[in-house]
């Protein structure tokens, strides 16, 4: 009898499956590979650890990029967003970030600094509580009530220097974010700094990142802060549209090429 598939075989098979389907849950992987869910979870975790996959708060796995730093967003989203971030920073004269959700935290994965001498310091690589940042709140607003309860089973974690909202206050704020399309952060993470954030979407309207404009509160307070939402939403829509175009091209290419099977 020939030997059964090795762990390496399973990982490679799973990686091909992940790219073919675009998203997987543990039970889907287990069924496709004909293995126990615990084995599928271990294999998916291996892909995540090495950057070949990523997991969101819905416990779904997506293709990653091995060249992306740990916790970073896949290279295609960052590459697509970069020129738009640069144009936005030039237009508003403020620092612009790209953020992704990691569990109950939000990570800054890209930055373009604004023009004025008094700028907000870049925070690339920094991980902060999602419910205190504008980009994190914009991404949290995409989750269902059940997903939020799963994310915060013991309530909201707070940082030593930030009070943060109560859970009920956050739920009301997320509802308001869904209505207006963007989130605010008024000195919740750093005194003297305010920000607005809006989601970038990819495939089936799934939010994969958030674009954030951060500015000194002396320049962005009240209506001045809300006015930044106009160019922010335009930029987020432009990145979303470009990701959709790339997705359609990729799907068309995959459909014509496909995988060749060998006997």
Automatic annotation (TrEMBL):
Span of domain HTH iclR-type: 5-65
The signal peptide here is none
SMART domains the UniProt entry points to: HTH_ICLR
Q: Which residues form the IclR-ED domain?
A: 46-245
Listed A to Z, the keywords are:
DNA-binding, Transcription, Transcription regulation
InterPro entries assigned: GAF-like_dom_sf, HTH_MetabolicPath_Reg, Tscrpt_reg_IclR_C, Tscrpt_reg_IclR_N, WH-like_DNA-bd_sf, WH_DNA-bd_sf
Can you name this protein? Answer: IclR family transcriptional regulator
- Natural source organism: Pseudonocardia xinjiangensis
Q: What is the lineage of its organism?
A: Bacteria, Bacillati, Actinomycetota, Actinomycetes, Pseudonocardiales
